[in-house]
Amino acid sequence: MAGLLAGATAHAHEFHGYASVVSDYVFRGASQSNEDPTVQGGLDYAHPGGIFAGVFASGTDYAENDFGSNPGSFELDAYLGYSRAAGRDWSWDVSALHYDFPDSTGFDYSYDELAANLHFRDRKKTVVAAATLSLDERLARYIVEGSRDGLTADLDEKLREAAPLDIINGPLMRGMDEVGRLFNDNKLIVAEVLQSAEAMKAAVNFLEPFMEKADTSSRGKILLGVPHRLKRSSGRIDRGGELRGALPA
Predict the structure, then answer these.
(1) Residues 176, 78: one domain?
(2) Residues 13 and 229: beta-carbon distance below 8 Å
(3) Which of 95, 165, 181, 194 falls between 20 and 30 A from 29, CA-CA?
(4) Contacts from 204-208 at CB under 8 Å and sequence distance 24+?
(5) CA distance 215 to 240
(6) What is the tens place of the pLDDT at every residue in 47-82?
(7) Which residues pair with 116 in a beta bridge?
(8) Closest CA relative to residue 197, chosen from 180, 218, 220
(9) Crossing angle, helix 190-207 and helix 173-184, to 10 degrees?
(10) Is 230 helix (H, G, I), strand (E, B) or coil?
(11) Residue 115: its pLDDT value, please?
(12) 18 Cβ partners below 8 Å, 6+ apart?
């Protein structure tokens, strides 16, 4: 089994639209709606390659001033940026933003910004001693954590009681199912999903030589990709040696 396909597909694009009524539009500590309710809406786009963009609109209401100018009653913003993960807990992004006030009077209130951000996610891991886990639980945990430390030794032990395809379609697939669930719950980032996929690929590569010739006479490919929400996997490896639908694809 060979191949790593990590590419964007038509299903990898994510769009998110929203509309709401808020009690007050506060931006950088100051009310933009004179502390009154207003209507807001927007459309966001994100690509797993890291590009993101969007538009935001809001009603505004500014107090009168002595200069005869006013930003108006409507704000329309747009942004374009790029973000990447840097390890399991760090990420960064850069973006360009345009703030527009179409019906402003007396002065052009529109302006542009460039922004750069560095993010850190302080996760509190629950440490579970390996000795308290069953062999199947340890195999699934390697996939969830994207770890290969001890993976081959436990796979070798599992081979004494189960066939390679049963190991893949059993504890290893359960690990991938858990990865999908955690990603959908926003508890994993794309970089962590890729590490899990690499651990799965390493496990399958280790098991391949132990498969019977009848099971590997027609060798397929494992396709590993990054979907927009990593839909819950439920695939299996068939007797032709091809992994169907179980990994992010």
Answers:
(1) no
(2) no
(3) 95
(4) 204/1, 204/168, 204/172, 204/243, 205/1, 206/151, 206/152, 206/155, 207/155, 207/159, 207/164, 207/167, 207/168, 208/1, 208/164
(5) 6
(6) 878 899 999 999 999 877 766 678 889 999 999 999
(7) 94
(8) 180
(9) 170
(10) coil
(11) 94
(12) 41, 42, 43
**Which element (helix H / strand E) includes 240?**
none
My answer on whether 79 and 150 are in the same domain is no
96 membership: H or E segment, kind and range: strand 90-100
Range of the domain at 179: 130-244
* Beta carbons of 160 and 196 less than 8 angstroms apart: no
Q: What is the pTM of this model?
A: 0.49
Q: H or E segment at 244?
A: strand 243-244
Higher per-residue pLDDT: 7 or 222: 222
- Give backbone dihedrals phi and psi of 34, rounded to 5 degrees, phi first: 60, 35
Task: Catalogue the E-assigned strands of 2-37.
Answer: 14-22, 26-27, 30-31
**CA pair distance 209, 87, nearest whole angstrom:** 32
| Domains identified in the chain, total number | 2
